[in-house]
Design goal:
With 708 residues, the chain is an alpha+beta fold. The chain is extended and about 105 Å long.
């Protein structure tokens, strides 16, 4: 029979090295390997697990520091628990079956403690740690079972898994009197120095939630006497964790909404229940709900630049407090009360809080100021799945939603923390004087003239220096003005590229139609003229786009010219027509024409910042979205009322929103309104938040009194 007519079946025949691959390549380091084995003790419902290191302690010189370490030759690690132990059938059908579904079966589950692993590969972490493993296990009122694993047997690339024999024996109890499991790891793969063991203790201290400690599972570490005595003890959380400057805790619902949020500030000394309107606390994408919830959380926060008070409270040193925070800081994820690595590891800023702080160090919290947790469940959060290497959750929209929700939560703390800081004044109207008005020697000059009018040399020197300062300020203002224009142009680049591309595509289409028409034998002149006319109209529209962005170029600041306020406002809205159309935001501008002598780009920057803010907040508004701009001319002033129907300004933030670097946006830098206020002040104007605007969201009033 020919080959093409043969039929049959193949089966996989795994090589022996598959086990080494699972243990050595999927488990990244020794500490993670031990954590995996400790989690098995937790799953065995043990109340305690002991990790004992034994071996010869040597010393080595690293730089200028002498380090003590347990040499791997002849050393051992013993992991002992008092769990339920395993019977022969469990070892045969669970331990000896890679990727077993043993823990997933209903008959093996315990309602009081969720299993931490269900992939059936955690036990092979022992191959990462040592060449030999002796497994001793016993169930209550049963004999002791001993199994010997030589992981080196699995290194032979030519051998098959089915050929590797594992020796076992059942004997009368020798090492376990009641029930439990002992893992004896010998022929270690690596040395263990004090720093490595210290890192292991820190990792184990966060295996179960340190903020909500689990008293029914304790972890103890034993080391040789020659090593640091502090390494050999029960793992407990430090007192520092009980004394945060702030905390926020609560729940995120399945829909991604806040529930039972409680905020605490040490300065106030009382817990505050936070409430949110329908327009508040929402992800940036309004089209969909979060797919990350539900989950519980708690974030504890410290002002690291002010730890002296805490050191007195807990009778510790600032150095030790900083060490506690360094060891435990970060936001961890716990699934069914057990930590998911590597979230919360030292220097693991998975929520990108430090980058967020770089953009706004005045307001934002850094990763090392926070000890917190997010608590998820295997059943309640099915989209937050573990990666195969047991280190992290599979990247996807659900995990991104968790990150965004964390920023929304921290944003609530950051605003309240900022508002507790001392203020120079309590006025809600912003920037009545220009930033540069303080850089003047005018008051000093007046004082000199009054007190030493005869000293012409001093008077002339002060006036000369005052003139030099004013000249320097003028140059600085010119540079800042150029930077403002160029920054604004950069913010508009997406709109320019998008609209410019559309115009070019339309012109290209009309050109193709002209070519196609010219190729016709009965080419009509009128048809070509119409197509050319279309191109001319598109060119005019294209030119309008450049006209609108032209004031934001980096040219030198010229003399202010007379502009029509309403036209400048309208041009700014047209530059954002794509976002306005996408979100179906209706806008209305006063049907008036009022002139003012002002730099067109600076007025544009003012309006642009207000439009950007409204678009951001209206995106989370489910009702009809509106912006109304009213221009009102008075006898000696001109006012602009800018109003939207977004969520408005939260009570308590009315003063702060005008200050540089304060932002209510989770990733906001907080410069927009500060820049607006500074520009308005240069025209002897006011910029304020008002209560009685035409819409029920944020209402701002701009008043110009100079060159109107």
């Amino acid at each position: 029979m020919s080959e093409e007519h043969n039929k049959g079946e193949f089966i996989f025949k795994p090589r022996a090295r598959l086990i080494k691959t699972i243990g050595e390549e999927l488990i990244s380091n020794d500490n993670v390997a031990i954590v995996e084995l400790v989690k098995n003790s937790y799953d065995a419902f043990s109340s305690i697990v002991e990790i004992s290191f034994d071996g010869i302690v040597n010393e080595k010189l690293e730089g200028r520091k002498i380090k003590k370490y347990i040499a791997k030759e002849g050393a051992s690690i013993i992991i002992y628990d008092e769990g339920v132990g395993m019977d022969f059938k469990t070892i045969q059908s669970a331990w000896m079956e890679p990727a077993t579904n043993f823990k997933k079966k209903e008959e093996n589950k315990n309602p009081n403690r969720k299993f931490t692993g269900e992939k059936g590969i955690g036990r092979f972490a022992s191959a990462k740690l040592a060449a030999h493993l002796e497994l001793i296990t016993k169930q209550k009122n049963k004999d002791e079972i001993v199994v010997h694993f030589n992981w080196d047997d699995f290194s032979d690339e030519d051998n098959y898994l089915e050929n590797i024999k594992i020796n076992w024996e059942i004997r009368k109890p020798i090492e376990l009197k009641n029930s439990g499991t002992i893992l004896k790891l010998t022929n270690l793969n690596n040395d263990w120095d004090e720093d490595k063991i210290r890192e292991l203790r820190i990792t184990l201290s966060r295996l179960l939630n340190p903020i909500v400690p689990n008293e029914d599972f304790l972890i103890s570490v034993n080391v040789p006497n020659e090593l640091d005595k502090s390494l050999a003890s029960l793992i407990e959380r430090p007192e520092t964790l009980n004394k945060p400057d702030y905390y926020i805790k609560g729940k995120i619902t399945t829909e991604g909404r806040p529930s039972n949020f409680i905020f605490f500030s040490k300065n106030k000394g009382v817990e505050e229940l936070l409430s949110f309107g329908e327009k508040e606390f929402k992800l940036k994408d309004p089209i969909r709900e979060s797919i990350a919830g539900p989950f519980d959380f708690e974030f504890r926060i410290w002002n690291r630049d002010d730890l002296a008070r805490l050191s007195k409270e807990i009778n510790s040193t600032i150095k030790n407090i900083k060490k506690d925070l360094d060891d435990l800081s970060g936001i961890s994820i716990y699934r069914d009360n057990v930590r998911v690595l590597p979230y919360g590891n030292k220097n693991n800023d998975w929520a990108r809080l430090d980058i967020r702080r770089v953009n706004n160090p005045t307001l934002r919290l850094s990763n090392n100021q926070i000890v917190g947790y997010v608590s998820i469940g295997l059943d309640s959060n099915p989209l937050l799945k573990d990666q195969s290497n047991r280190e992290g959750i599979v990247e996807g929209q659900a995990l991104e939603d968790v990150k965004d929700l964390i920023k929304l939560i921290l944003n609530e703390v950051e605003q309240r923390r900022y508002n507790e800081r001392p203020r120079e004044n309590d006025q809600k109207t912003i920037v009545r004087e220009s930033l540069f008005e303080r850089f003047s020697l005018q008051s000093l000059s007046t004082l000199v003239k009054q007190n030493i009018p005869s000293n012409k040399l001093v008077i002339d020197a002060v006036e000369k220096k005052d003139a030099e300062i004013k000249e320097g300020i003028g140059k600085v203002q010119e540079v800042i003005s150029r930077y403002r224009r160029l920054t604004t142009l950069g913010q508009l680049i997406d709109a320019v590229v998008h609209d410019g591309g559309n115009y070019l595509n339309k012109i290209d289409m009309q050109s193709h139609l002209i070519i196609k028409t010219l190729k016709k034998t009965d080419c009509q002149k009128e048809e070509i003229l119409e197509l050319v006319s279309n191109i001319q109209n598109l060119r005019k529209d294209f030119a309008q786009l450049f006209r609108r962005i032209e004031p934001f170029g980096g040219r030198k600041r010229g003399r202010p010219k007379v502009v029509t306020v309403e036209d400048v406002i309208r041009d700014q809205f047209l530059l954002y027509h794509t976002d306005l159309s996408r979100l179906n935001i209706q806008y209305e501008i006063s049907d008036t024409k009022n002139s003012v002598t002002i730099d067109e780009a600076e007025l544009g920057i003012i309006i642009m910042n207000l439009i950007q803010n409204s678009i951001y907040w209206l995106e989370n508004t489910e009702t009809q979205r509106q912006i109304i701009v009213e221009v009102i001319k008075g006898e000696n002033e001109l006012s602009i009322i800018f109003s939207d129907n977004g969520p408005g300004i939260k009570t308590g933030n009315e003063d702060s929103i005008f200050e540089p670097y304060f932002s209510t946006k989770p990733d906001g830098i907080g410069l927009g309104l500060a820049i607006v206020g500074e520009l308005i002040s240069e025209y002897n104007g006011d910029f304020m938040l008002i209560n009685n605007g035409p819409l029920d969201g944020a209402n701002f009033k701009i008043t110009f009194r100079y060159r109107i």
